[in-house]
Amino acid sequence: MSDEIKPDELLNKIDYGPRSESGPESESKLKPASWMDTSVQIRPGMYCYAAKAESVETLSLPNARSWNPLEDDWKLPDNWQEIIHRGIKERLKKFRTFKIFMDVCVRCGACADKCHFFLGTGDPKNMPVLRAELLRSVYRNDFTTAGKILKKFPGGAELNGSRPLTLDVLKEWWYYFFQCTECRRCSVFCPYGIDTAEITIMGRELLNLIGLNIDWIATPVSNCYKTGNHLGIQPHAFVDMIEFFTEDIEDVTGINVEPQMNKKGADILFITPSGDVFADPGTYTCQGYMILFKYLKDKYGLDITWSTYASEGGNFGFFTSHETMKRLNAKMFAEAKRLGVKWILGGECGHMWRVINQYMDTMNGPADFLEEPVNPITGTKFENSKSTKMVHITEFTADLIKHGKLELDKSRNANRIMTFHDSCNPARGMGLLEEPRYIINECCDHFYEMPPNTIRELTFCCGSGAGLNAGENIELRMAGGLPRANAVKYVHEKFGVNSLGTICAIDRAALPTLMDYWVPGVDVVGIHELVGNALILPGEKKRTQDLRFEPLPGMELEEDEDE
Amino acid sequence: MNQKYLIPLTAVFLAFLVAYTGVEGAGLQWFFGIVFPYVAIIAFLAGFVYKVLGWASSAVPFRIPTTCGQQKSLPWIKQNTIDNPDTSTGVFLRMVLEIFLFRSLFRNTKAAFNRNASNSLSYSWEIFLWLGALAFHYSFLVVLLRHFRFFTSPVPSCLKFLEYLDGIVQLGLPGIFLSGVVLLAATLFLLARRIFDAKVTYISQAADYFPLFLIIGIAASGLSMRYFTKVDIIGIKTLTMGLVTFSPTIPEGVGGLFYAHVFLVSILFAYFPASKLMHLGGIFLSPTRNMANNTRAKRHVNPWNYDVDVHTYAQYEDHFREKMIEAGLPVDKPVNKKE
């Protein structure tokens, strides 16, 4: 990407005063028009390509066709307005969140500068309140008594802040609902708890009714449905990749850690995002899991199986519609039932855990064929997951470490000066904050927090979540990731932080690019990569390299001698 | 742009004038003092109930609180029981703090970007919106409660005590009530934010200015009656007691200013259920705040949950069986030998 926007050019664009959005630096800067009067300009670098017809067809979702957002004709069904109208009406009944959030916003502006996309672009329509107003303006026009009366008078609609659903408005919805990563940061600050993620979810669900998805969501959804994972890795290829990791780990440790796949009667089913099997640096996290499971098997006889059918922890259905989310998520319980395991263990992933923590049991439960999760090694009952019967791997590992069940050699991570990026969903849709920090501290010597306004429930998104981690929208991603990167830069310069820990597969895919762009010299590492490096496998050889085949701290010389 | 606040401002002025001249010129006391207040109260009550029932009739399919602290996890990890509650006690406390102290707004920060060598984004605590909002709501509440002295006879002692507290700064004659002054000041502050903070200006609608102007009009007319123009307080109490006992009468000697004040208040009540002011009711029902984060421990039931098409393991295995066998993966059904 040679035509990629340079960091300096991007920074020059940032201006938190209102201006005409998305267009080239515009003359209207001085005279802010009503936001309703500015029509959307879909700008390359800021949007993702349209969903391919065949991906939409896999799940028989509506209006599969080839279309291009830059063209005027989006090839919509003739009655698209009616479809959307009916869709809104239905959802107002089905979701109290939607109805209340349409009604109660007072536009106080507390959310305005909390959104990473607003902070990175300065585009006023990225203020969460305005993102929601895009939809609310239509809601007020068509669904409220006041709106229905007022629009009959000249100027009444403007007075009410309402507008009819035109093609222009629809395009604006599409553009901005795919510039939101559903991170919920604004919701933390809202005095009524209005959650823009919820509004974006509704917006995208409506758009999907007339076939307006983006391909970076639709194709993973289609893959996941057919092959079991977003990346479309077929079962034999999945096995190949795991075997490849097994060889790498054997090179480093001298131990064959080959995991069990699709094994009936195992104790625990393990499910993680397929991104960890597919691309660096997630692969090292995956290897960390494999080393941990081997350790537990050899030492304590714990029998954990992977599955190729349920080989996806993530759920891009969540970014499509509630129904699609349910269709993809169903695999987890179905596979646990088929294999006859006791409970499910879930890997490091962000939105996956929002789905598991807040939706899964409701959608696809009750999981009465599973047992209430107990760690057989420590005897700890995972009280917080006794109904869904799915435990987060950092809860599991933290429990093991706390009980002294893992033999760890911290010095192998001594070269990592860590900070930790709370992923949006585990932070604001779950509250998984201390577990990963505990593990980091047990596996590493150096850990520094980023500034308090940028971590825990106030964490900033990587800028690429909710299905926006594509290549074509790189400017959007780099702008949206700026607040996160800026906080990393702070600890990088102040404490020499060189490693950014995270518990999210999208983060592991997105943050390396973001770091290269804004803070070169910072690696992105999964928490279980640290565990994999520190954990001393029974009978292992003297390790000289970490999982990345980099020399371990203090082993740089021996490396040289070997060569 | 201007019409966003000019039209609401004009509307409030006109309403004031209509009532004032209607009473002073046309003798329409019965309308502005009896008919419209009754209509407004009915509209308020009916509208409020209708709206809340409307929200309540919508389903809550998922338990999706926004969590703002450590979850309940392992026994040795300290949970934030208020910001990430897993029990109804925790939720109750969270809601109390939210409703009475505007806890979320208290977190407010202001972001700044410094385009210089460090290019740093910084976030500073921004307390003024919280302060302004709190001052506004509580002073309005006190003012409202104090007005119950017009609707009760004898005046209950708790109201007298409230008046005593409100007038504790003994200044001028008649003694000044803090609440009225704070109400006017806080409303003016909130208005100033809308006009001078560029971001807030941009997001503001006429529907944001209208209630502000209305309340400013109410506060100003109320203050001027108490401290400057003076009114026949006995006459007013006759009218208000008449309203509340459903035997309305129009006393002699109460001027147009009072009726204009009542008219603005009536408009506020009637307008309330159709407006954003319904956040008063909505905050109680907001699912991101009023639910416990315990969906993994306690199953939440979606009333409209329905079955969906899924790609079953059997379909998956049918599709990949040979490849699976080749890769050494166990299969449920042996491969069909066709040839």
Topology of helices and strands:
The complex is a heterodimer of chains A (563) and B (339).
Chain A: H1 7-12, H2 53-58, H3 80-94, H4 96-103, H5 116-121, H6 128-143, H7 145-150, H8 156-160, H9 167-177, H10 185-189, H11 196-209, H12 215-227, H13 235-253, E1 260-261, E2 268-271, H14 275-278, H15 282-300, E3 304-306, H16 322-339, E4 343-346, H17 351-364, E5 390-392, H18 393-402, E6 417-421, H19 424-428, H20 434-443, E7 446-447, H21 474-480, H22 482-495, E8 499-502, H23 505-518, E9 523-526, H24 527-534, H25 556-562
Helix pairs in contact in A: 3-4, 3-11, 6-11, 9-11, 15-24, 16-17, 18-20, 20-24
Chain B: H1 3-24, H2 29-57, H3 88-101, H4 103-106, E1 109-113, E2 121-125, H5 128-146, H6 157-166, H7 178-196, H8 198-203, H9 206-229, H10 233-244, H11 256-271, H12 279-285, H13 313-326
Antiparallel strand pairs in B: 1-2
Helix pairs in contact in B: 1-9, 1-11, 2-11, 5-7, 7-9, 9-11
Structural notes for this entry:
The complex is a heterodimer of chains A (563) and B (339). Chain A has helices at residues 7-12, 53-58, 80-94, 96-103, 116-121, 128-143, 145-150, 156-160, 167-177, 185-189, 196-209, 215-227, 235-253, 275-278, 282-300, 322-339, 351-364, 393-402, 424-428, 434-443, 474-480, 482-495, 505-518, 527-534, 556-562, and strands at residues 260-261, 268-271, 304-306, 343-346, 390-392, 417-421, 446-447, 499-502, 523-526. Chain A has 563 residues and is mainly alpha-helical. The longest helix of chain A has 19 residues, at 235-253. In chain A, the strands form two sheets. Chain A has a five-stranded parallel sheet with strand order 1-3-2-4-5. Chain A has 25 helices and nine strands. Chain B has 13 helices and two strands. With 339 residues, chain B is mainly alpha-helical. In chain B, 36% of the residues are buried. Chain B starts with a helix and ends in a 13-residue tail after the last helix. The radius of gyration of chain B is 29 Å and the shape is elongated. Chain B has a two-stranded antiparallel ribbon with strand order 1-2. Classes of the chains: A mainly alpha (563), B mainly alpha (339). At the A-B interface, helix 3, helix 4, helix 6, helix 8 and helix 10 of A face helix 1, helix 2, strand 1, helix 8 and helix 9 of B.
